[in-house]
Amino acid sequence: MKDSDIEDAVARVLSGYTGVAAPKPAFKPAPEGCAWEATKPADPMDDIIGGILTRALSERNCSCCKAGDCKGASGCLSISDAEAVELGDGIFATMDEAINAAAEAQKKYLFCSMADRKRFVDGIRAIFTDPAILERISRLTVEQTGMGNVEHKIIKNRLAAENSPGIEDLVTEAQSGDDGLTLVELSPYGVIGAITPTTNPTETIICNGIGMLAAGNAAVFSPHPRARGVSLLSIKLINRKLAALGAPANLVVTVQAPSIENTNAMMAHPKVRMLVATGGPAIVRTVMSTGKKAIGAGAGNPPVVVDETADIPKAALDIVNGASFDNNMPCIAEKEAIVVNQVADFLISEMCRNGAYLVKDPAVIAKLEARVLTEKGGPKTDCVGKSAVWLLEQVGVKVGPEVRLVLMEATKDHPFVQEELMMPILPLVRVPCVDEAIDLAVDLEHGNRHTAIMHSTNVRKLTKMAKLIQTTIFVKNGPSYAGIGVGGEGYTTFTIAGPTGEGLTSARSFARRRKCVMVEALNVR
Ligand code: NAD
Questions:
Q1: pTM across the whole model
Q2: Where's the Aldehyde dehydrogenase domain (predicted)?
Q3: Which atom of ligand 1 is nearest the CA belonging to 332?
Q4: Which of 134, 151, 186, 279 has the fewest CB atoms within 10 Å, measured from its CB?
Q5: Residues whose CB falls within 8 Å of the CB of residue 99, separated by 6 or more in sequence, listed in order
Q6: ipTM of the complex
């Protein structure tokens, strides 16, 4: 769109509101700092014009980007892999610089309107629902981390962009009475330090970025070093887009070389008021012991229980789909099946009809154990997030691409059952009855309070398991990913905080409850 077209469009819209042709506004580039603050209108109509103009300008930038002829301009989303890790657009040399910049940005952000926040959040959604960007970040993640599959990462990234709650999540409470009116509002913490995992690097940046900005915060990300390139690219894309929308610069930042030292510096920095760790037990323990407000979203070991009342063909398909999703890397994915003996053979045969490969030979199982487990019994990093075809190939079994899951029977003490493997190997434990299945599931979940799944048509047993297991997510008669909004109702989160109790985090989890009291007034009942 040309500048003159934009001006004409604004004039046309204005004449619709006023009934008379409006004077053409002068061209203004996207302002530095908050758009609302910089162009604070004397007349509400100016606000409408400002919104139209900013949107038109950002559309202009986007179409330029796609044509590749606005390189380097504010809002240009055409960033090469090499450029993604250069300084600028939210990428800083040191953690101290990054945090100071975010703190400055957040001070300006306090004076932006809720409508501005929504525009900025919508801007983030727009970046990561663009099919070309979705494909690129998903492919880069697989290339850089060596884990997962592109197709499923596209689904996860899109889900984070479309379905993470925004400002509508911040609901104000009001109490009125003889003594006046009190409001309880959800207010930002300030600068939040967010640590992100290798398994969902971009999904977590998108999801946390939307929630933290919606709640009025600035975010400092500490990505996993293995996902450095794609994490920095995502942060740079967000900064470019926010700049085009007139947001304060550096609301979302990180360092050029993410490392454990930098994460430690972030956690210790006095300007970081809240920490959010999405990762394994070590980092969750670490943030919880900093003395700061911390949200810990830690490991899971989700059991799936199947009883004799379940729709077995459906349960089999759901389990294969859930346990093979992104090569079993989601923390919510089925990690072990506990099946009532009466239906176990039927379930196994149905799973094999739907992409599971049953390994029965004890020698092959022994080879698999040796290949994928460390001496301590945990998963070897180079096997995490690999495909079933790759894993079987490692132990001399050649299968076609239709195989999505390695299935084997095991006893409850087997390390594949006890450990969170994060690869598409599903051990199946037989039990005599549903009550034993539920007890074992509670045991194998290890008190993570993360995710569990059950296939049953017995409402009493479903209720019993839900009560006893106390997980944040409990999926009944569906694949695990229904719990994050793929084919299940409800919003999406990639930070499921069992240990610290926030559970399904969203914008309101990144906000403080503050009280505003008006005494002896504004009670109009
Ligand atoms: P990880 O714990 O190895 O790393 C997570 C992040 O913490 C990374 O950024 C890493 O650099 C950092 N980190 C780890 N140890 C650290 C230390 N001692 N000091 C400073 N920084 C440290 O986990 P991962 O392999 O990236 O991710 C997989 C794990 O995360 C699994 O256990 C999975 O269940 C869990 N996870 C949980 C959720 C959830 O919502 N609960 C979501 C995704 C992943």
A1: 0.88
A2: 93-479
A3: 34
A4: 151
A5: 191, 193, 220, 253, 266, 269, 271, 272
A6: 0.97
